[in-house]
TrEMBL record:
It comes from the Bacteria. It comes from Methylomonas rivi. This is TIGR03016 family PEP-CTERM system-associated outer membrane protein. InterPro entries: CHP03016_PEP-CTERM.
Length: 531
C-alpha cells in the first residue's frame, strides 16, 4: 500500500510545483505574450458491423458496435516551455457483443518547462492506453474481442540541470521518477491472473555527465554515470547502472585515438546467468579522411568496429559491430541505420539490440497516430488510437527482455498515389523464464487521391509469431482493409472540414492454441471533425 500512498503524494507535489511555476511565468513573465496556444476539440462517431464480435470461431456472434469519442488536442509553445496533450474519451456500446456501455480513456502528454532559462528544466510525460494481453491473440482496437486487454497508465517527471563551467566543461545532472500501473478491470476472468505477472512499478533514474568544453582542442573527454532502479509491487526488482569515462586525442583532422573504461553494475533475476558485471575497457582509433565516411575500431574486453558512410545528401549509413564481455547484451551484437532518400521515394533499414522491461516498453508506446502524418496513419482519422500488434508477451510482464529488432521500410509517391511497405523481425529472450519469441511481419499501404478531398486506400498486413512458451504457441494473422474517405466542408460558426469514411475489413488469425483462432469481417462508417 505504501507505494500507492507515495505515488499520490508525488502526483500532488508535482502538480503543485508545475502549477506554481506555470502561474509565475504566466502572470509575471515578460514573454507571456510569446506563448502560442492551439486548442483543437474533436468529435468522432462510428457505426461498426462485425460478423464476429467476440473474435471466436467457436461462438460467432454478429452485431453492431456504436462509438462516440470526443477529444481534445492542446499544443502550446514559447521560448521557455512547450506542451503537447492529446486526450480522447472513447464511449462504446455493445463492444465485444456485451450489450453494455464502456468508457475508455486515452491520453498522451509531453511537456518541457524551463524554470531557469537554458539551465534548469522540468520534463514530464503521461499516457493512458489499452494494450493486448498477448502477442499471440491480437486485437487491434477496443471494439471487438472478449476484453482480453490491459489498461496501461504511465506518469514520469524528470528535472535536470545543464551547467556550463566557463570554457572548461559542460554538465548534465538529471533525476527522474516514473510510475507504471496496470488494470484488468474490463478483462475476462482468465486474464485477471495477469495482475500477478505484470506488476505495477516505480522507477527512479539518475544521470550525470561532464564533458570537455571549448578550451580543450586536441584532447576531449567525457565522464558519465547512469542508473535506473525499477521497484515492483510483486516480483523481483531491476537495476541498470553504469559508470563510464573516455578520452580522445586528435593528432589531426583525420586521425584520433581514444580510451574508454568503466564499470557495469546491473541486477535482475536470470536463469541463464546473463548478467556480467565488472570493469570494462576499450582502446582504439578513428580514421576520418573526409566528411563522407569514417572508420573506428576499439579493442579490449569490450570491442567494436563502426563504419559511417555518407557519400551524398541522399544516402547515409551507420553500422556498428560489438563484442562485449562485460555489461548488458554481451557477446556479438549489431546496430545499423541506413537511409536513402530520392525525390519521390525513401528506403530505411534499422537494426538494434537492447535490454528492457515490459513496463518501459509500454511507457514508450505511441498512443495516437501523428496528425501531421496522414499517409502513415492506420485509420481514416489520424487521431484514432492505433494498437501495436507486435508487443511483448504481457503474460511474462515481470521478465527482463533482450530485444533484437530489424525493420525495412519503403515509401514512394507519384502523381495522386502514395505507397508504403515495411518488413520487420523481432526476437525476444525473456529472463528468467527463458521463453523466446520470434515475430515476422509485413505491412503495406496504397492511397489514391483521385479527387482533392476523396481518397481510396488499401492496407494489407501479415504477422507470424513463433514462441517457445507452451501456453502461447505459434500464430499467424492476416488483416486487409479497403476504404474510402472524403472531406466535407461544414459551417458551425466557422468553416470546418469533416472527414467521412467507409471501410471494409477482413481479419483471420490461426494459432496452435485453438481458442485463439478467429475470422472477422467488418464494415465501418465513420465521421470525424476537428473544431
Amino acid at each position: 500500500m505504501g507505494i500507492h500512498k507515495n505515488d499520490n503524494k508525488l502526483h500532488k507535489i508535482t502538480f503543485r510545483l508545475f502549477a506554481i511555476l506555470f502561474s509565475y511565468e504566466f502572470f509575471f513573465s515578460e514573454n507571456v505574450s510569446a506563448f502560442d496556444w492551439r486548442v483543437r476539440p474533436s468529435l468522432s462517431m462510428s457505426e461498426v458491423f462485425s460478423d464476429n464480435l467476440e473474435l471466436s470461431d467457436n461462438a460467432k456472434k454478429s452485431g453492431f458496435v456504436s462509438e462516440v469519442s470526443p477529444g481534445i488536442l492542446i499544443y502550446g509553445s514559447s521560448p521557455w516551455s512547450n506542451l503537447n496533450l492529446n486526450y480522447r474519451l472513447q464511449g462504446l456500446h455493445n463492444a465485444g457483443g456485451s450489450d453494455a456501455f464502456d468508457i475508455n480513456h486515452q491520453l498522451q502528454m509531453n511537456s518541457l518547462y524551463q524554470a531557469l532559462r537554458n539551465t534548469l528544466f522540468i520534463q514530464t510525460s503521461s499516457s493512458i492506453s489499452q494494450q493486448n494481453i498477448s502477442n499471440t491473440f491480437i486485437t487491434t482496437d477496443n471494439l471487438t474481442g472478449n476484453n482480453s486487454r490491459v489498461e496501461s497508465k504511465n506518469f514520469s517527471i524528470s528535472p535536470y540541470w545543464t551547467p556550463h563551467f566557463g570554457q572548461y566543461a559542460n554538465g548534465l545532472f538529471k533525476v527522474g521518477y516514473q510510475k507504471s500501473s496496470f488494470d484488468t478491470t474490463n478483462s475476462n476472468t482468465a486474464s485477471s491472473a495477469l495482475l500477478n505477472q505484470l506488476s505495477d512499478s516505480e522507477s527512479f533514474s539518475r544521470q550525470a555527465r561532464l564533458s570537455s568544453g571549448s578550451k580543450f582542442s586536441s584532447v576531449r573527454w567525457n565522464l558519465n554515470y547512469s542508473s535506473d532502479d525499477q521497484s515492483r509491487v510483486t516480483g523481483s526488482d531491476v537495476r541498470f547502472e553504469q559508470y563510464t569515462g573516455d578520452a580522445r586525442y586528435y593528432f589531426n583532422r583525420k586521425y584520433n585515438a581514444f580510451i574508454r573504461a568503466g564499470y557495469e553494475n546491473n541486477d535482475f533475476e536470470t536463469a541463464s546467468d546473463s548478467v556480467n558485471n565488472g570493469f570494462f575497457y576499450t582502446f582504439g582509433a578513428q580514421w576520418n579522411p573526409s566528411m563522407f565516411y569514417s572508420l573506428e575500431a576499439g579493442y579490449g574486453n569490450n570491442k567494436h568496429v563502426t563504419v559511417r558512410v555518407n557519400p551524398s545528401a541522399n544516402l547515409s549509413a551507420f553500422v556498428t559491430f560489438q563484442n562485449k564481455e562485460v555489461g548488458l547484451n554481451t557477446g556479438n551484437s549489431w546496430d545499423a541505420n541506413l537511409l536513402y532518400r530520392a525525390k519521390q521515394a525513401s528506403v530505411r533499414f534499422t537494426y538494434s539490440q537492447d535490454t528492457t522491461t515490459v513496463q518501459q516498453v509500454l511507457a514508450n508506446q505511441l498512443i495516437f497516430a501523428d496528425p501531421d502524418e496522414d499517409e502513415s496513419s492506420n485509420t481514416s482519422d489520424p487521431s484514432l488510437l492505433v494498437f501495436n500488434p507486435n508487443l511483448p508477451n504481457l503474460g511474462l510482464g515481470n521478465d527482463v527482455i533482450i530485444n533484437k529488432q530489424a525493420n525495412l521500410s519503403f515509401t514512394f509517391q507519384t502523381g495522386k498515389s502514395f505507397y508504403n511497405a515495411s518488413l520487420y523481425n523481432t526476437r525476444r529472450n525473456y529472463e528468467p523464464s527463458l521463453v523466446e519469441d520470434n515475430v515476422y511481419g509485413a505491412s503495406a499501404g496504397w492511397r489514391w487521391q483521385f479527387d482533392p478531398r476523396l481518397n481510396l486506400y488499401l492496407r494489407p498486413n501479415w504477422q507470424s509469431t513463433d514462441s517457445s512458451s507452451t501456453s502461447a504457441g505459434n500464430s499467424q494473422r492476416y488483416d486487409v482493409a479497403l476504404g474510402l474517405t472524403r472531406g466535407m466542408s461544414i459551417n458551425l460558426g466557422r468553416r470546418l472540414l469533416m472527414n467521412t469514411s467507409l471501410e471494409f475489413r477482413h481479419i483471420k488469425q490461426q494459432s496452435d492454441v485453438s481458442t485463439n483462432d478467429y475470422t472477422e469481417n467488418r464494415a465501418t462508417a465513420n465521421f470525424a471533425v476537428r473544431f
